[in-house]
Amino acid sequence: MECLLLTGDRKLRVEAEDHEIEVHGTIWVIESLVEKDLINKAKGIQLLESLKQVNSSLPFEEIERLIRLFRK
């Protein structure tokens, strides 16, 4: 059975990857919503900026990369 795991838990992510389960997090969700035109780029930027304020464990480089991409 194929599945995808959506989590922000680092230990769970590692365990899933050890079992070759595809894992994604909040940043991926926002990027996917923008790519599928379910939210506009401005909303995506707003959500990413909010993430930076509430979760210091996220990869800020990836967030900044997406913000730059969405601003184009």
Helix amount: 55-70%
Anisotropy-based shape? globular
Low-pLDDT segments, ≥5 res = none
Report strand order across the widest sheet: 1-2
**Proportion of residues in extended strands:** 5-15%
Describe this structure in words.
There is one protein chain. By secondary structure, this protein is mainly alpha-helical. The protein has one domain (4-71). It contains four helices and two strands; from the N terminus they run βαβααα. It has helices spanning 10-18, 26-35, 41-54, 60-71; strands at 4-6, 22-24. A two-stranded parallel ribbon has the order 1-2. β1 (4-6), α1 (10-18) and β2 form a beta-alpha-beta unit. α2 (26-35) runs antiparallel to α3 (41-54) and α3 (41-54) packs antiparallel against α4. The longest helix has 14 residues, at 41-54. It starts with a strand and ends with a helix. The model has no long low-confidence stretch (mean pLDDT 93).
Task: Give a brief description.
This protein has 72 residues and is mainly alpha-helical. The chain has helices at residues 10-18, 26-35, 41-54, 60-71, and strands spanning 4-6, 22-24. The chain is built from 4 helices and 2 strands.
Features of the shown structure:
8% strand, 72 residues, mainly alpha, 4 helices, two-stranded parallel sheet
